[in-house]
Amino acid sequence: MFVQHPREPKLMDQLHAALRSRHYSHRTEEIYSNWVLRYIRFHEFKHPRDMAEPEINEFLSYLAIQKKIGSSAQNQALAAILFLYRRVLELEIGDLGNLVRARKSVRVPVVMSRNEVAIVLSQLQGRDKLLVELIYGTGMRLSECLRLRVKEVDFSRNEITIRSGKGNKDRIVMLPRTLKTRLRNHLKDVRHVHEQDLSDGWGSVVLPKALGRKYLNAPREWRWQWVFPQQSRWVDRKTWKEGRHHVDQTVIQRAIKLSVAKCDLTKHITCHTFRHSFATHLLEGGYDIRTVQSLLGHKDVKTTMIYTHVLNRGPAGVRSPMDDLHNAIETDDSDDDEK
Fold this sequence. Notes:
2 domains; mainly alpha; hpI Integrase, Chain A; three-stranded antiparallel beta sheet; two-stranded antiparallel ribbon; flat
């Protein structure tokens, strides 16, 4: 087991500090920490400073051969380890040599038809239904929808601003006109709850980064509140203050799972399936792929192009020879009847 100098910060604390100072998301911080811990445990707790290219190669090859993980997970592990060496230990890693790469798979996304979307949505109710409709109507990720704040919804311009999306990028998406009235009514209910929290002596929300220290009154302001807060207040065990987080993602995931079960659909439908369906239906509607790329927040248009593989082009698409064979048989039968 590696031993650190008593005055030196713990390695994992250094890793967390380096990630936060570069404004990596909380989710990325969790993932990178997990891979670094697995890397250290694999080599029986040797300090990473005492390891280099051969040990990294051995660990990544083990993931590909023994664990049979996919290429994206292997790249994720490599990114975490390289971040540790370059940004925390300030050591440069050279050529990894004969690294065994996991085979990259091209997966076609699961996409629902418009009718299937309507069927699943019909099984949802209240807040959960509105939230999932926003995901399908805007193409947001579940995490982006849950982190929406009141100030980011612009009813006058029919826009929603997504802050710090994947890759720490902002973008603007449309606000579906059919959801405006219900969203307004939902926010009226949320505001009533917020005002009740304020009267009870609470009502503060966690702000991103250091904004809470910069704007002392902002955590209690209405515009900074979550669009989809959880039903019950949480208690900070350090300060014993009460506040509200946004709805937990598992609540929505469970609601969708139960709704799909009621519909008796055989497709594997998750929250992300609504985002896939949003993109595909836009392309089917004739919108250009660059517009769809911008709405989804994809860095590379190649990522968006995966949806062109599942387009339902109807009569303009490829016709199966089986259909032609079936028509030919029907034509022959009708000719025999006339004779």
